[in-house]
Amino acid sequence: MTASIILGTGSYTPDKxxxxxxxxxxxxxxxxxxxxxxxxxxRRFAADNETTSDMALQAASKAILNAGIEKxxxxxxxxxxxxxxxxxxxxxCILQHKMGLPNVTAFDIQAACSGFIYALNLANTMILSKxxxxxxxxxxxxxxxxxxxxxxxxxxxxxxxxxAAILTExxxxxIGILHTDTGADGETPELLHQPAGxxxxxxxxxxxxxxxxxLKMNGxxxxxxxVRVMGQSCVKSLEACNLTSxxxxxxxxxxxxMRIIESLAKRLEIPLDKFHNNLDLYGNTxxxxxxxxxxxxxxxxxxxxxDRILLVAFGAGLTWGSQIIQW
Length: 327
Ligand code: ACO
Known about the structure:
- The protein is of the alpha/beta class.
- It folds into two domains: 3-173, 3-Layer(aba) Sandwich (Peroxisomal Thiolase, Chain A, domain 1); 177-326, 3-Layer(aba) Sandwich (Peroxisomal Thiolase, Chain A, domain 1).
- Helix 3 packs across helix 4.
- The strands form four sheets. A five-stranded mixed β-sheet has the order 1-7-6-4-5, sandwiched between helices.
- It has helices spanning 20-24, 31-38, 52-67, 91-99, 115-128, 152-155, 205-209, 219-240, 258-268, 279-282, 289-299, and strands at residues 3-12, 16-19, 42-45, 76-80, 105-109, 134-141, 161-170, 176-184, 192-193, 216-217, 250-253, 308-315, 319-326.
- Residues 29, 33-34, 37-38, 112-113, 152-153, 156, 192, 217, 219-220, 222-223, 226, 256-257, 284, 286, 315-316 line the site of acetyl coenzyme *A.
């Protein structure tokens, strides 16, 4: 039997650091408010001419290096993002060309902040089906390109960045991705959305004047749902693997809000020091967030052979997912 294992990861965050004090010069906010309500101290913003696929290219190059593979062994690219370079063609195709991988299957998926887990799950099933052997997974976002810098309730929360993982087949079915739980609830898309730019509200002078191309969010409602669905999803994944919270060595949660992570830790009865967090440095980087934290944890030697890792995310849609990986 075949399993899928993560051979290597990589991440990239732009050079430009924007502190909470910098944000307070743009909107009516303060370092104190942002830190206590979210845990964020700073975020990175991409340069004006730096695209989502440019950042993905940097993360992908590091992942290939860390995996110790030839780039030509990649037979598919799955790119999770809600801020693609353009509506079409896909950022995956743009990245494929930048990487010099002609003819390799490449496509985007859109599951907002759950994108990295959705992509890993998809890649896993594609590998298990034996149609593909080595898949490059990307989670990358240039959220600064859709933030409304007149809306203090959203613009202070997000940042830019990219992450990558190389998933490949292994004959040892005791390691790799053990289980994934994903789900979605499309009943209330307005809780977190970018209203204009698609077929519902094509770009127009009105859509621009009404600021409909920016991210809009009902933070309070998202917060409540996030804690509930992330907890439920983790329990489902643990039960599917016949594991308990105590069997988990490290949790890599989506980095949206420290209070959400603390509530989740309490709900799962997993001590907070078993969570890898970097929210203070990067803010919420949506689809990039889990991959950046995973890469950071690996580089910091927080993950060793035999460890059981729990990934968990939620995002616009709403979407959610959790995944247990045996390292
Ligand atoms: N600076 C100062 N004051 C602010 C700011 C700010 N940046 N933003 C809001 N406030 C004010 C509000 O206006 C309000 O003032 P009022 O009481 O006078 O009306 C007060 O602070 C409290 O606002 P709340 O919205 O109640 O603050 P809350 O404690 O709920 O925190 C937050 C807001 C941080 C957004 C929280 O609800 C949250 O994190 N929600 C989850 C959001 C999230 O994770 N989204 C990502 C989803 S993932 C994806 O798919 C991208």
